Fold:
Amino acid sequence: MSLEKIADEVLETDVLVVGGGLAGCFAAIKAKEAGLNVTMFEKAAVDHSGEGGTGIDHVQVYHDDPSILPLNPTDAAEQIKKLPLVDPTIPYEEILSEAYDRVLDLESYGMKVRQEDGSFLLMEGDQWILTMSADQKVLLSAKVRELGVKVINYTQGTSLLTNNGEVVGATGINIRNGKFTVCKAKATVLSTGKATRLYLNHCALHPSIFAGWRNPACCGEGHVIAYKAGAKLVNMEFARGGGGGGGLPLAGARYTFTRSPTHCIPRDQPTVFDINGQPVPHSYDKLREAAIEGKAPFYFDMTGLDDKYHKQWLLAQANEHPIVIKYMLEQGVDFRRDKIDFGVGVGYPNALDCMGAGQSGVKIDDMCRTNLKGLYGGGDMTGGHYYGALAGTFVFGARAGKFASEYAKKADISAINVDQVAAEKERVFSPLNRAEGVHWLEFEKAIQWIVSHYMGVVRNGPLMKRGVQLLDQLKTKFADELQASNNHELMRCLEAQNIAVVAEMHMKAALERRESRFGLSHQRVDYPDTDDKNWAMPIVIKKMNEQMNVELSGGWEH
Amino acid sequence: MSQFSYGPKIDYDKCNGCGLCYKYCPVDIFGWDREKKQPIIAYPEECYVCGICEYECEQMCIDIVLPLHYRLDRKIKPETLR
Structure:
């Protein structure tokens, strides 16, 4: 059977970008500026998709000239290179410097980052950071369109197509009309965001059936797509401390109620207090300790802070999560006057992440290459390097686009394995073809129940081992029983199946790492100490002989 | 059928059917009524209260209803906690 008969649409492009968030947009822009034909799969509409869809309040940028920006890339790069589980072969000084160039790009697209006197609008807090605005995604997507990127909205990437181990394109399905698209590409950039939805609601103030304030569309699909094609993933055992029992989705301080809004309020200014009116140190571990000691409920008290911090903080909310302003108006909350309780404040993690060290995700090298020829990674989905969050998505997204373009210029469109496409189409549509079966949400909540209760609060070997067994049972019994009655539900089924694979990586990597590291990101009661002698290297996950191979790496090479 | 109370509510008297909410929702909770040429809230429970539909609505006819625990008075006097 021919490709054209299997797929509803067959496209050909120089660079295919899967995932149109901040990183994907920058990748597409840089590839287009390199003179190439660029196609983008985006699961929602590119205008507001991804973690930055509502805006992001700040970015950490650096400059050699202190009169332009206070932080210096050389010094910062030296600090980063000393961090554990960070790939030292990544050129951090170059990368940190590029963040400034990306800010200038955004400014040229129309974003306001300066005050009237021409200086940057900086927030003074833990560090000096540059204020961003809520419209960055709108401006970026406008630029993507202006440059002529072929944006295919509402299209969920489902698999990478390979030819002799080389990535030669991808398949996607339209979540609204079910159109199955094959896109042949000389180079492919994956930029699908962080892996969320692994734990039960981390944020009790957030009621969504999804886990919390993070964009639930970013649920590790790129991690799994890459894994299935043979890519390596690193640091998958670490999880980002939760939003707590009562965290409002407050910007930057979206973990406000468990730590403090550190990026716009200095750490030496207490904002979180215990039942005795004593400040709780800005550490998730300390908060948990205090809770166990009976010092909850904790409360958030900014009433003593200088007005300039209130202004910065409010600006941060408006630029990143404007819904918080609505909450404050509706409930008559004024943080200059009011103290707000947040219960116990210790919750489940909200996403995979190393706190303050190498990211979790698909391993990339100094040129954003994965270990698969033709496949590049950008943004929150990539792992092993420091510099995540907003600046990381800008820089690594743009670099992925740039290096993918250089590769694409020398590459040809390769032949597509028709059998691979046919098998993928059958897999993708199978939930729609079942008359009855399991609802995706039941399956997703069962995954979250296992991950939360078998490694969410306390990690220990026997507990996690049992969790892995239960997850395996769940997948064997039900992953292929999911049923969808329309294309929207089909998208959710495919997401849930991918979440199950990320959960497996997460648990197996945590089981393998027989030490504790990064506070509650990976705290094992059976191996409570950090062991730099034996465990300062990443756990690498890779598919081998159809099995998930999980092992400690001896180095950072591909 | 009863539905979740939170998420976007559309004032259909004001809605002009521009479709921006249906277009922009990052998690695809809106559907489209082809006969009435209007959006519908197809999956309210999947709303994660990001706010984009309300901010983008040209007619300002969407009101995102906040979840129950956002509707509680969380203000406290610390001295009364013990």
